[in-house]
Every structure is written in structure tokens, then in C-alpha cells.
Amino acid sequence: MLKASKDRIAAKLTLPQKRFAAEVIGTFIVVVLATGSVVIDAKFGGRLGLAFIAFAPFVGVAIGVYLFGKISMAHFNPAVTLAFLITGHITKLQLLHYLTAQITGALLASLFVMSFIGTEASLGANAPDYSYRLPLVFGIEVLATALLMAVIYLVVYTKGFRGLGGLVIGGMVGLDIFFLAFISGASMNPARSLAPALLSGVLGSLWLYWTATFIGSSAVAFLVRKKFKSSKTEE
After folding, report:
1. Which candidate in 61, 118, 142, 207 could, as Cys together with 216 as Cys, close a disulfide (CB 3.0–4.6 Å)?
2. Which secondary structure element, helix H or strand E, spans residue 208, and what is its range?
């Protein structure tokens, strides 16, 4: 009965509406796990450690890709969406829809974390280490996002990487966090950074995640866009 009702609702939704819903829900999952893990670790006095903080978003991204990859391409990230615009995978109008959905999903996620998990660690807001020189911090965030975007394009180009796409993309997120977060915070995702920063009022580093991430993803997009255009021509 419940399944039949869900099927009827899904049948009534247009493709843009399905994409919008997928991006809201997918971003919600990713941001709850990415920021909620930081809050939970803070509650335990840091005893769970960086491995836990890196593993949680790996799971969130993998789940999102497998659930929604065929509906919306599973962006869940404004930097990824901009890159897909550059390579011609989406239109400018779709860019607006994606960004609205992602920010909505991220804000709902931070509200969920605040209500049901806790408010420690500024709701899991990204925190770069400014004891390192600023060019290094900025460069590491660019690098982390570029590595993620390169892996995403690899998965897209290989048409799902033999069913391992979710694990590969999620794994790259986890590895970036595990190895690079101690310098830049390794957000890779402007929406993930925006929501907890806004709701906690800790806005000092938000500029970093709304510049470096877009630079990193766009740089990779410009490098590979001819490859995708040529493959589309061949098809």
C-alpha cells in the first residue's frame, strides 16, 4: 500500500521536480553525516578521531550516489554543479535549480543536526588551520576539490565505473578529509560549509570554501571539457 502510494507520487513528478527532490534529499544526507560526525566527535572529546569524521561523509556520499545518481547525477555540491555546467552536462537554468536544492538540503541538514545531534564544534562547520600560511591553506582546499572533481569525471566518463561509482566518489571524499582536513578543513562543498556556518554564526572562514572549492572544480572541468564534447559528438 505504502509502496503503491510512493509510486503514484513519483509518477506525478516531472523530471526537474525529481532532480530537485533528489538533490535536496541527497545533500541533506551528505551534510548530516559530514557535519554530524564532527559534532558527535566533539561530544566524545575527540576520542572518535579523524577516521570517524572522514568515514561518515564517505558513507553519506556513497549512499547518495547509489540512490540518486540516475536521477540527478548526484551532485549534492555547488562546486560540482558549476563544473558540470562548464562541461555541458547541465544548462544555466538547471544550475539555478541545483544550487537552490543543494542549499535547501544543507540548511535542513544543519537544522536537523542542531535539533537532534548537538551544537558542539559550531554545528560541524569547517575549520582551517591558519597556523599554516594562507596560500597553502587555500591551495590545499583547491587541491582537495580538484581531486574529488577528477574522480567524479572519471566515474561519469566510465559510465559508473562498473557499479563502483558511489564507493569511488565517497572514498575520495573520505581520503581528502583524512589527509587534508587538518590544513584546510577539506570541505570540497560550499553548501556543506555554508549551512553550519550560517546557523552557528561562525562565518570567518566561509570565504575560503566559496572560492577555493569553485576554483578547484572549475579547473578540472576546463581541463576535461574537450574530452566530454568529443565523446558526445561521437555518440
Report:
1. 142
2. helix 206-209
Read off the pLDDT of each residue in 151-170 and give the average, rounded to a whole number.
91
Distant-in-sequence, close-in-space partners of 146: CB < 8 Å, separation ≥ 6:
216, 217, 219, 220
Cβ-in-10-Å burial (0-12, 13-18, 19+) of 23 comes to buried
Compute CA distances 125 → 13, 46, 65, whole Å. Answer: 34, 15, 23
Reported pTM: 0.92
Distance CA 199, CA 27 (A): 17
Is 40 strand, coil or helix?
A: helix
- Give 73-85 pLDDT, tens digit per residue: 999 999 999 999 9
Q: How far apart are CA 215 and CA 94, in angstroms?
A: 20
